[in-house]
Amino acid sequence: MRHALIAALFTATALVAPALAADPAKPGTRSVTLRDLGYPDGVTLSGISARQDIFFPLPAWVPTDNLQLDMKLDTALAEGQRASVQLLLDDQPRWAGALKPGTHAQSVAASLKRTDLRQGFTKATIAWGAQWTDNRCVDQRLPGGFVTLSPDSAVTYSIDPAKIDSVRAAWSALGPRVHLLLPAGDLTVTQFQAAVKLAGDLQRQGRIVTFDRLPTPGVISTLSVPPATTGSIVIATKAEVEALGAAIRALPGKDKLWSLRDGGAGADIALLPMAEGMALALLDGIDGEKVRVLTDGWSPLADTSANTINAAKPQPASLIGNDGIPFAVLGLGQGVQELVDRAEWPLRLDYAQVPQGQRPAALEIELAPGSTMGDKPQLLHVFVNNTLLRSVSLPDGGKVQRISVPLPDGLLGRSNAIRIVLQRQASGGDCREAPLASPAQILPGSRVTLTPDSTKPADFYALSPAMAKGATLVVTPDHLKDVAAVNLAARIVADLVPAQAPLSVIVGDGKAKPATPFIQLPGASLPGKPDLPVRLDGGAVSVKDRSGQALLDVTGTHGLMTAQLASLDGTPGLALATSDGRISPLMPRLAFDKGNVAFADDTGLLMAFDTVRDRAVRVVVADDAGWADWLDRFRIVLVLGAWGLLTLVGVGSLRRWYRNRAPKA
């Protein structure tokens, strides 16, 4: 069934090539740390009992050697406390040790074995248990020690580039730092589209992407790949790759490099041996839609050295519908945890997952809390973006509980952290009979419910649902020859455009009109003038606070980029502008979140605010804040003056009435 679904999405014609003997190369050593996986502070366990599963990615379809987990532990135990730690690899116990009182650091190394090359990860589990004495438990009333798994803990392995013999293996072996090599000349519109789509999807997966141009055959000495690169992808025509390859193979000792592995007629993707290892070459027929054969998880289909891709339509159905977003999409996994006193389920809701015309309304949680040994109720706490939204008592033992948690307006943003915490009151005092851990599970029916939303996007993050069915990049002819434009567009796409949304590219010459919500790169023109929160073409522009002090000189700051929510004939979009229309090659990833106006430079996002809701700052054009800003600045004085004037008028009216009243008879 799975292969039938894949075949329905993409039909690949394998262009089988004879084996090409690669240059002898030393197997490249790779490492994946906890920091790479998004744990900048490591993992800390404490309490009576705790457990954490960590999934380290491995290259699927690629043989690995010297596979090992190096774990660095920082422990702290109070005097008289006892604790132990256990390490499991793929659910098999591999190490256990009792911890010493005081503060210590120790390292643990364990070798790993892969039984299935198709599995793209290895699972490491660290378990912790502690007590004070035989009859005194460690619980919330008596804090004890802890163990921290250092963020430098890593899985290391080595791969032999000569064993990468298929497109799917090369894609899986790319690693966390990918280098994209673009054509030496101008990119075509489809090449620009493919490069932006590919780089955006790679960044969305957490990889670091760098860009460079291919050299011409006459100056091949300028061809270089950053030393930290773990994988390379070339986007160019077959003719350009072959011409460059012929020049490289003419060099001494390079006769096996830069020769496409059967990149025959019609091949869209092929293998390309480079000095740094096996690379992928995206050739003449590649575009943003065909890139999905790699980025959407269908790369197991590409099991030969070259492939022709035919994208099927309509697009495959998504797990996300108008009835809600399942917790499984938010990273729930199986949702089962063994707990004694506390369990926590961390989830992540990206607003790009919200369907078009919808907005999140509530969390619908189905929880099987499991039975406890005593009669004390269990407690459930629900946090969203570190805000406690619901805390309830669950008195009915192990019965399935259904809890609805409404999401208040203004709480959500671009990326939202959801934490569901279940607590049990473990026995304190007499612990000669240790408290038993029992499972609890968040059931698959749990979801984020949605409600219709027909309003226009009021914040940057709200553009993502509007782009769910497609987005358009508006570029200039100069952008097609500018690597910095590809870099900027890819970073914007990674943050705002949903992964499944089709991406189109048009050259903004003032005549072409985008058919879908758009991203307008600096210097590109649209037919007519889009509606913008602030018009920046009326003179000198600055950002000032309520007292009139300048916070940012927009016009006089070199390299500054302005981003605004825009609307063109009812079509929403993002308008980017710089003072000279140029794009900095060092522009980092910009996480546009709340607000409708933002400013950024090479260091990242400087400030973002809403011109309607926020009153602490305002954009001033040509030193003219306008009557509205003048009234806002002096509103207290004006209100007091109005009250004083009304008081004087009232007192004067009473005096005239008193003087003119009729005398008594």
**Pairing-aware structural class of the strands and helices?**
alpha+beta
Radius of gyration (CA) equals 31 Å
Question: What level of helicity do the residues show?
Answer: 10-25%
Number of structural units classed as domains: 5
Mean pLDDT: 83
Tally of alpha and pi helices: 9
The unreliable regions are 1-27
The spatial strand order of the largest sheet comes to: 1-18-16-17-15-13-14
User: What overall form do the CA principal axes indicate?
Assistant: globular
Q: Work out the strand percent.
A: 35-45%
Describe this structure in words.
It comes from Niveispirillum cyanobacteriorum. With 665 residues, the protein is of the alpha+beta class. The chain folds into five domains: 2-25 and 164-311, no CATH class; 30-159, Sandwich (Jelly Rolls), CATH 2.60.120.260; 325-428 and 435-452, Sandwich (Jelly Rolls); 460-626; 634-665. Helix content is 15%, strand content 37%. It has a seven-stranded mixed β-sheet. Strands 30-29-31-35-34-36-37 form a seven-stranded mixed β-sheet, covered by helices on one side. Strands 2, 3, 5, 8, 11 and 12 form a six-stranded antiparallel β-sheet that branches. α3 crosses α7 (483-496). The chain is globular, with a radius of gyration of 31 Å.
